């Protein structure tokens, strides 16, 4: 039973990392409000959706909708902070076949460009590094300002095998699906006007 949870949790963790990385793109050189923000990942194990959450992540973002060329973001996620609700499975996910947290403690996203789309929608391109592998990704994100905060949300599908998340017997996608949906809700202080 533990093996059934392990792949699922890891896939979720990988997704969460991606989501968190892409999600935190916009803000006026502000730190993410971790208490109000969340990064979760949903993967399917034998067709059943499983969800997990990263408890620790940090980002520095600079975002101005009128100055996209100079907007940027960097996010780091503590992969050992991933939790899926089962202590034994959570521990497995930190191991070599999954995140190998002892060797690769951080997942990092660094934006390279931000392009606007329809009202409040943005495509954030950048490089995501997980478990020593760097992949170019584009994160679809929505943006809105609410009072004194900026809110960025979205869902990013990733392929866990692209990052070797779930090595060995877990590479088989018939048990744990390759695609992971990373959901993010990132809150930062609103940018200063002027």
Automatic annotation (TrEMBL):
It comes from the Bacteria. This is Polyisoprenoid-binding protein. Gene3D superfamilies: Lipid/polyisoprenoid-binding, YceI-like. Keywords: Signal. PROSITE patterns: TAT (PS51318). Residues 29-189 form the Lipid/polyisoprenoid-binding YceI-like domain. Residues 1-30 form the signal peptide. Pfam families: YceI (PF04264).
